[in-house]
Write a structure and sequence with these properties.
Layout lengths: L1 H16 L9 E5 L5 E8 L2 E5 L6 H10 L8 E3 L11 E3 L31 E3 L7 H7 L1 H6 L1 H13 L1
Parallel strand pairs: 3-5
Antiparallel strand pairs: 1-2, 2-3, 2-6, 4-6
Helix pairs in contact: 1-5
Bound molecules: calcium ion (2 copies).
């Protein structure tokens, strides 16, 4: 009974989160084993594209993780299409974040679309999870929800029982 109720609630929330339209500067991680990691894709002009790994380092990864709602601490940069090659445009190259920017698009880099890269050089990150705000993290990605639906429903059930 409770299970059915919460399943519907989370499906509705995921429909909202899964909205395919993206806004300028939005980020997503693709091809990782969880929502914490993956090839970096950035939204420019309503399209998702990748970032070249030239000058891609911990400072850049920290900004990406922060923008995605994860801690800056423990952010790791990966190069050479570590989580697989993307398709479509390569939007940024020579990214030089200081690490304190709130959004990746605030970091100095080459102009949008200007690069000398291949998708074999797609940049990626690995973020660390905060140990608090569990519910927010559940909503971070519907991929996580679909993988862990049973556990989430159980968590919601237990939460209500508190
Ligand atoms: Ca850099
Ligand atoms: Ca370059």
């Amino acid at each position: 009974m409770h299970t059915h109720k919460y399943t519907n609630i989370y499906y509705i929330l995921c429909l909202v989160v899964d909205n395919p339209d993206c806004a300028y500067g939005d980020l997503r991680l693709v091809g990782g084993a969880s929502d914490l990691e993956g090839r970096l894709e950035v939204c420019i002009g309503g399209r998702w594209g990748t970032v070249c790994d030239d000058q891609w380092d911990t400072f850049d990864a920290a900004v990406v993780c922060s923008q995605l709602g994860f801690p800056r601490e423990g952010a790791t940069a990966r190069t050479g299409a570590f989580f697989g090659q993307g398709t479509g445009p390569i939007f940024f190259d020579e990214t030089r974040c200081s690490g304190n920017e709130s959004k990746l698009v605030d970091c100095p880099s080459s102009a949008v679309g200007v690069h000398n890269c291949l998708h074999a050089e797609d940049a990626a990150v690995i973020c660390q999870r905060k140990t608090t705000h569990l519910l927010l993290i559940f909503l971070q990605t519907c991929e996580f929800f679909h993988t862990h639906k049973k556990e989430i429903v159980q968590f919601a059930y237990n939460y209500e029982s508190l």
